[in-house]
Amino acid sequence: MTDSRIDFRQAKFLISAPDIAHLDEHLPGDVGVEIAFAGRSNAGKSSALNQLTEQKNLARTSKTPGRTQLINVFALDEHRRLVDLPGYGFAQVPLAMKKKWQQALGQYLQERDCLSGLVVLMDIRHPLKDLDMQMIEWAVACDIPVLALLTKCDKLAQSARMKTVNEVRKALADFGDGVKVEPFSSLKGTGKPKVLSILNQWCHPDWLVEALADAEQE
Ligand SMILES: Nc1nc2c(ncn2[C@@H]2O[C@H](COP(=O)(O)OP(=O)(O)O)[C@@H](O)[C@H]2O)c(=O)[nH]1
Ligand SMILES: [Mg+2]
Asked: Judging by DSSP bridges, how do beta strands 146-151 and 80-84 pair with one another?
Protein backbone atom coordinates (compact mmCIF):
# COMPACT_ATOMS: atom_id res chain seq x y z
CA MET A 1 0.00 0.00 0.00
CA THR A 2 1.39 3.38 -0.98
CA ASP A 3 0.11 5.61 1.83
CA SER A 4 -0.70 3.59 4.93
CA ARG A 5 0.42 6.39 7.22
CA ILE A 6 -0.51 10.00 6.53
CA ASP A 7 2.19 12.56 7.29
CA PHE A 8 0.26 15.42 8.90
CA ARG A 9 3.34 17.63 8.65
CA GLN A 10 2.61 17.79 4.91
CA ALA A 11 -0.57 19.81 5.52
CA LYS A 12 -0.77 22.79 3.19
CA PHE A 13 -3.21 25.67 3.14
CA LEU A 14 -5.68 25.06 0.33
CA ILE A 15 -8.52 27.56 0.53
CA SER A 16 -10.54 29.79 2.84
CA ALA A 17 -14.29 30.02 2.77
CA PRO A 18 -15.18 33.53 3.91
CA ASP A 19 -18.71 32.88 5.01
CA ILE A 20 -20.12 29.77 6.57
CA ALA A 21 -23.53 30.58 5.14
CA HIS A 22 -22.30 29.82 1.62
CA LEU A 23 -19.89 27.06 2.46
CA ASP A 24 -20.81 24.85 -0.46
CA GLU A 25 -19.87 27.59 -2.94
CA HIS A 26 -16.36 27.89 -1.53
CA LEU A 27 -15.31 24.43 -0.44
CA PRO A 28 -13.46 22.05 -2.71
CA GLY A 29 -15.51 19.28 -4.35
CA ASP A 30 -17.24 16.92 -1.96
CA VAL A 31 -14.86 14.01 -2.70
CA GLY A 32 -12.16 12.14 -0.82
CA VAL A 33 -11.85 12.44 2.95
CA GLU A 34 -12.36 15.49 5.10
CA ILE A 35 -11.67 15.73 8.85
CA ALA A 36 -13.18 18.76 10.56
CA PHE A 37 -12.02 20.52 13.73
CA ALA A 38 -14.66 22.32 15.75
CA GLY A 39 -14.82 23.91 19.17
CA ARG A 40 -15.79 26.93 21.18
CA SER A 41 -13.55 29.86 20.42
CA ASN A 42 -10.45 29.79 22.60
CA ALA A 43 -10.73 26.02 23.11
CA GLY A 44 -7.26 25.63 21.59
CA LYS A 45 -8.20 24.57 18.07
CA SER A 46 -5.58 26.57 16.19
CA SER A 47 -2.86 25.51 18.65
CA ALA A 48 -3.88 21.86 18.25
CA LEU A 49 -3.79 22.07 14.44
CA ASN A 50 -0.36 23.67 14.60
CA GLN A 51 0.93 21.02 17.02
CA LEU A 52 -0.51 18.10 15.03
CA THR A 53 0.99 19.38 11.78
CA GLU A 54 4.17 20.64 13.44
CA GLN A 55 3.71 23.98 11.72
CA LYS A 56 3.92 27.12 13.81
CA ASN A 57 1.51 29.15 11.74
CA LEU A 58 -0.71 26.76 9.84
CA ALA A 59 -3.79 27.89 11.76
CA ARG A 60 -3.24 31.24 13.35
CA THR A 61 -3.57 31.27 17.14
CA SER A 62 -5.09 34.28 18.73
CA LYS A 63 -5.58 35.66 22.19
CA THR A 64 -8.71 37.45 21.02
CA PRO A 65 -11.58 34.97 21.05
CA GLY A 66 -13.63 34.76 17.90
CA ARG A 67 -11.18 36.32 15.51
CA THR A 68 -11.06 33.37 13.16
CA GLN A 69 -14.37 33.35 11.35
CA LEU A 70 -13.01 32.00 8.14
CA ILE A 71 -13.22 28.32 7.39
CA ASN A 72 -9.74 27.22 6.44
CA VAL A 73 -9.13 24.08 4.45
CA PHE A 74 -5.75 22.34 4.46
CA ALA A 75 -4.74 19.58 2.09
CA LEU A 76 -2.89 16.55 3.48
CA ASP A 77 -2.56 14.91 0.10
CA GLU A 78 -4.67 14.72 -3.04
CA HIS A 79 -7.40 12.69 -1.31
CA ARG A 80 -7.50 14.08 2.21
CA ARG A 81 -8.16 17.45 3.85
CA LEU A 82 -8.39 19.05 7.28
CA VAL A 83 -11.06 21.69 7.84
CA ASP A 84 -10.78 24.34 10.53
CA LEU A 85 -14.35 25.33 11.32
CA PRO A 86 -15.09 28.70 12.94
CA GLY A 87 -15.10 28.77 16.74
CA TYR A 88 -18.55 28.95 18.26
CA GLY A 89 -20.08 30.22 21.43
CA PHE A 90 -18.17 33.38 22.26
CA ALA A 91 -20.05 36.11 24.04
CA GLN A 92 -19.56 39.21 21.89
CA VAL A 93 -21.46 37.97 18.86
CA PRO A 94 -25.12 38.94 18.38
CA LEU A 95 -27.63 36.12 18.84
CA ALA A 96 -28.88 36.25 15.25
CA MET A 97 -25.31 35.75 14.02
CA LYS A 98 -24.78 32.83 16.42
CA LYS A 99 -27.96 31.18 15.17
CA LYS A 100 -26.84 31.60 11.57
CA TRP A 101 -23.49 29.98 12.33
CA GLN A 102 -25.06 27.15 14.19
CA GLN A 103 -27.38 26.44 11.33
CA ALA A 104 -24.55 26.49 8.82
CA LEU A 105 -22.36 24.23 10.99
CA GLY A 106 -25.23 21.77 11.31
CA GLN A 107 -25.75 21.87 7.58
CA TYR A 108 -22.07 21.23 6.91
CA LEU A 109 -22.07 18.22 9.24
CA GLN A 110 -25.24 16.82 7.78
CA GLU A 111 -24.64 17.43 4.10
CA ARG A 112 -20.92 17.04 3.54
CA ASP A 113 -20.55 13.47 2.27
CA CYS A 114 -16.75 13.42 2.43
CA LEU A 115 -16.75 14.31 6.13
CA SER A 116 -15.11 11.27 7.72
CA GLY A 117 -14.47 12.46 11.23
CA LEU A 118 -15.10 15.35 13.57
CA VAL A 119 -12.72 16.53 16.26
CA VAL A 120 -14.56 18.53 18.94
CA LEU A 121 -12.03 20.44 20.99
CA MET A 122 -12.98 21.44 24.51
CA ASP A 123 -10.90 23.07 27.23
CA ILE A 124 -10.47 20.26 29.78
CA ARG A 125 -11.55 22.69 32.49
CA HIS A 126 -14.88 23.44 30.74
CA PRO A 127 -15.99 20.38 28.74
CA LEU A 128 -19.36 19.48 27.21
CA LYS A 129 -21.08 22.85 26.89
CA ASP A 130 -24.39 22.98 25.00
CA LEU A 131 -22.94 23.66 21.58
CA ASP A 132 -20.27 20.97 22.04
CA MET A 133 -23.02 18.46 22.76
CA GLN A 134 -24.98 19.72 19.77
CA MET A 135 -21.99 19.17 17.46
CA ILE A 136 -21.41 15.68 18.87
CA GLU A 137 -25.09 14.76 18.54
CA TRP A 138 -25.24 15.97 14.95
CA ALA A 139 -22.14 13.99 14.03
CA VAL A 140 -23.35 10.80 15.72
CA ALA A 141 -26.74 11.15 14.00
CA CYS A 142 -24.88 11.28 10.67
CA ASP A 143 -22.66 8.28 11.57
CA ILE A 144 -19.56 10.43 11.62
CA PRO A 145 -16.96 9.31 14.18
CA VAL A 146 -16.08 11.90 16.82
CA LEU A 147 -12.95 12.59 18.81
CA ALA A 148 -13.73 14.71 21.87
CA LEU A 149 -10.35 16.27 22.54
CA LEU A 150 -9.86 17.69 26.04
CA THR A 151 -7.36 20.45 25.40
CA LYS A 152 -4.91 22.32 27.61
CA CYS A 153 -4.60 19.22 29.82
CA ASP A 154 -1.27 20.60 31.06
CA LYS A 155 -3.38 23.00 33.15
CA LEU A 156 -4.50 20.12 35.39
CA ALA A 157 -2.53 17.73 37.56
CA GLN A 158 -2.55 14.11 36.38
CA SER A 159 -5.24 12.99 38.88
CA ALA A 160 -7.64 15.84 38.06
CA ARG A 161 -6.98 15.27 34.38
CA MET A 162 -7.89 11.58 34.50
CA LYS A 163 -10.93 12.34 36.63
CA THR A 164 -12.28 14.71 33.95
CA VAL A 165 -11.40 12.33 31.12
CA ASN A 166 -13.33 9.55 32.88
CA GLU A 167 -16.30 11.80 33.60
CA VAL A 168 -16.50 12.91 29.97
CA ARG A 169 -16.14 9.30 28.77
CA LYS A 170 -19.00 8.34 31.03
CA ALA A 171 -21.15 11.26 29.86
CA LEU A 172 -20.60 10.26 26.22
CA ALA A 173 -20.73 6.49 26.71
CA ASP A 174 -24.29 6.20 25.37
CA PHE A 175 -23.07 7.35 21.96
CA GLY A 176 -21.03 4.15 21.67
CA ASP A 177 -17.65 3.40 20.08
CA GLY A 178 -18.01 6.12 17.47
CA VAL A 179 -17.16 8.76 20.08
CA LYS A 180 -13.69 8.74 21.61
CA VAL A 181 -12.37 10.97 24.38
CA GLU A 182 -8.69 11.86 24.82
CA PRO A 183 -6.71 14.45 26.79
CA PHE A 184 -4.41 16.71 24.80
CA SER A 185 -1.88 19.47 25.30
CA SER A 186 -0.61 21.53 22.40
CA LEU A 187 1.92 23.05 24.74
CA LYS A 188 3.48 19.74 25.83
CA GLY A 189 2.48 17.44 22.99
CA THR A 190 0.53 15.21 25.40
CA GLY A 191 -1.83 12.85 23.61
CA LYS A 192 -0.40 13.59 20.18
CA PRO A 193 0.47 10.00 19.11
CA LYS A 194 -3.01 8.83 20.11
CA VAL A 195 -4.72 11.63 18.20
CA LEU A 196 -2.60 11.09 15.10
CA SER A 197 -3.41 7.40 15.18
CA ILE A 198 -7.17 8.10 15.32
CA LEU A 199 -6.97 10.70 12.54
CA ASN A 200 -4.91 8.28 10.50
CA GLN A 201 -7.63 5.65 10.79
CA TRP A 202 -10.23 8.17 9.64
CA CYS A 203 -8.02 8.92 6.65
CA HIS A 204 -8.34 5.29 5.58
CA PRO A 205 -12.00 4.43 5.19
CA ASP A 206 -12.48 1.04 3.48
CA TRP A 207 -13.93 2.58 0.33
CA LEU A 208 -10.88 4.80 -0.20
CA VAL A 209 -8.35 2.06 0.56
CA GLU A 210 -10.11 -0.20 -1.95
CA ALA A 211 -10.34 2.51 -4.60
CA LEU A 212 -6.64 3.32 -4.27
CA ALA A 213 -5.68 -0.36 -4.41
CA ASP A 214 -7.78 -0.76 -7.58
CA ALA A 215 -6.21 2.30 -9.15
CA GLU A 216 -2.75 0.93 -8.39
CA GLN A 217 -3.49 -2.36 -10.18
CA GLU A 218 -4.69 -0.68 -13.33
N1 LIG B 1 -1.52 25.91 28.61
C2 LIG B 1 -1.99 25.71 27.38
N3 LIG B 1 -2.54 26.74 26.70
C4 LIG B 1 -3.04 26.50 25.46
C5 LIG B 1 -3.01 25.21 24.88
N6 LIG B 1 -3.60 25.28 23.67
C7 LIG B 1 -3.97 26.56 23.51
N8 LIG B 1 -3.63 27.33 24.57
C9 LIG B 1 -3.86 28.77 24.74
O10 LIG B 1 -5.25 29.04 24.67
C11 LIG B 1 -5.51 30.24 23.93
C12 LIG B 1 -6.43 29.93 22.75
O13 LIG B 1 -5.76 29.07 21.86
P14 LIG B 1 -6.15 29.01 20.29
O15 LIG B 1 -5.40 27.85 19.73
O16 LIG B 1 -5.98 30.33 19.64
O17 LIG B 1 -7.70 28.66 20.41
P18 LIG B 1 -8.85 28.66 19.28
O19 LIG B 1 -9.60 29.94 19.45
O20 LIG B 1 -9.70 27.49 19.63
O21 LIG B 1 -8.20 28.52 17.94
C22 LIG B 1 -4.15 30.77 23.51
O23 LIG B 1 -3.76 31.76 24.44
C24 LIG B 1 -3.25 29.55 23.58
O25 LIG B 1 -1.92 29.88 23.84
C26 LIG B 1 -2.41 24.13 25.64
O27 LIG B 1 -2.34 22.96 25.23
N28 LIG B 1 -1.93 24.45 26.88
MG1 LIG C 1 -8.36 29.67 16.27
From this structure: unpaired
For ligand 1, is residue 42 a contact (CB within 6 Å)?
yes
Ligand 1 atom 14, closest CA: 44
Ligand 1 atom 8: residue of nearest CA: 44
190 CB within 6 A, ligand 1: no
Would you say 152 and 125 are in contact if contact means Cβ atoms under 8 Å apart? yes
What is the residue with the minimal CA distance to atom 3 of ligand 1?
152
Does a structural domain hold residue 207?
yes
CATH number at residue 193: 3.40.50.300
Q: Is 101 within the bounds of a domain?
A: yes
In short, whether 51's Cβ falls inside 6 Å of ligand 1 is no
10 CA to centre of own chain = 17
Q: What is the pTM of this model?
A: 0.94
pLDDT in tens, 163-199: 999 999 999 999 999 999 999 999 999 999 999 999 9
The number of domains in the chain is 1
- Residue 10: partners with Cβ closer than 8 Å, 6 or more residues away: 76, 77
